[in-house]
Write a structure and sequence with these properties.
This protein has a seven-stranded mixed β-sheet, with helices on both faces. The chain has one domain: 3-Layer(aba) Sandwich (Glycerol-3-phosphate (1)-acyltransferase), CATH 3.40.1130. The protein has helices spanning 2-24, 52-59, 76-84, 97-108, 128-137, 149-152, 181-193, and strands at residues 27-30, 41-45, 65-69, 87-90, 112-115, 141-147, 165-169. It has 201 residues and is an alpha/beta fold.
Length: 201
Amino acid sequence: MIEFFRSIYYWLATGLASVVSLVFYPCQVIGRGNVPRQGGFILASNHESNIDPMLLPVVCPRQMRFMAKDSLFSNPVLGAIIRTGGGFPVKRGRPDRGAMEEFLRQLSLGFPVLIFPQGTRGGERPQAGVGFLAVKSGKPVLPVYIEGTDKVLAKGKALPQRHPVKVVFGTPITFGPDEPVDVVAQKVMAAIWALKNPLPH
């Protein structure tokens, strides 16, 4: 019953986010058919703006889960809202075993789980965590490229500016259990950047 109401809340919140998207960042979506129709997978995206976690649920046809920095949960009301919407806390700046276990649990329950391999907005190098999760879970990784959200809400800005954005879904990638996690992380990030200029179909 709790999961039923959580699902209703998720789609209501996503519907509201869709309205916001139409107003501030009309979105072109490429490759939506590449999203697996069932089963858990890792949704790995570049990270350009604070609106990225609000945009991806709008353009992804599957109900997803996601990590959010633990400081957001210090407010009981905000924390409850994030949890109801599918979020769970992660400690920034150091390994968080609990967050990793919850990530893997949600994958095992059949949910897509969002991760930003860069760790922070505009990060230069991928974090090894995405490689660990891909190898440990054995689930496919779906690379996603976002373009334009940094123009909607630039770093340090409080108010959004209207600007079109683009989201490109790549094809799922599966990694073997013996692949080095740092190499896997680099491959995932390379697959994301390769979507910057997708080949015409």
